[in-house]
Amino acid sequence: MLIFNPETKRQSAQWKHTDSPPLKKFWVTASAEKMMVAMFWGSKGVILTHCIPKSTTVTGETYEDVLTNEVSSSIA
């Protein structure tokens, strides 16, 4: 398992001459956003992979919409 542990300012401190150019610092950024996916499969494998839109609450109604609109069209 690889864990990224950035240096603190004190750990990355270096001695340099007054005429030397400033050191370049890189910012640690967050990785890609999370995505919720609904997968439907049958006895022969995956039928449909449906990406849930961002900030959508998955309720019985949204699940039913995906079943009736997406899954039924991919089976037929």
Notes on the structure:
The chain has a domain of 39 residues. Helices cover 21% and strands 17% of the residues. The chain is built from 1 helix and 2 strands. The radius of gyration is 24 Å and the shape is rod-shaped. The model has no long low-confidence stretch (mean pLDDT 79).
Question: How are the secondary structure elements laid out?
Answer:
Blueprint: E1 37-42, E2 45-51, H1 60-75
Antiparallel strand pairs: 1-2
**Helix and strand string, N-terminal first?**
EEH
Helix content estimate: 10-25%
Fraction in beta strands: 15-25%
Biggest sheet, spatial arrangement of strands: 1-2
Number of strand segments: 2
Radius of gyration: 24 Å
Q: Name the quaternary structure.
A: single chain
Low-confidence segments = none
Q: Which structural class is indicated by helix and strand composition?
A: alpha+beta
The general outline is rod-shaped
Count of helical stretches: 1
Mean pLDDT: 79
Largest sheet at a glance?
Answer: 2 strands, antiparallel
Ends: how far apart?
43 Å
Features:
single chain, 76 residues, alpha+beta, two-stranded antiparallel ribbon, 1 helix, rod-shaped
In a nutshell, what does this entry contain?
With 76 residues, this protein is an alpha+beta fold. 21% of the residues lie in helices and 17% in strands. The chain has one helix spanning 60-75; strands at 37-42, 45-51.
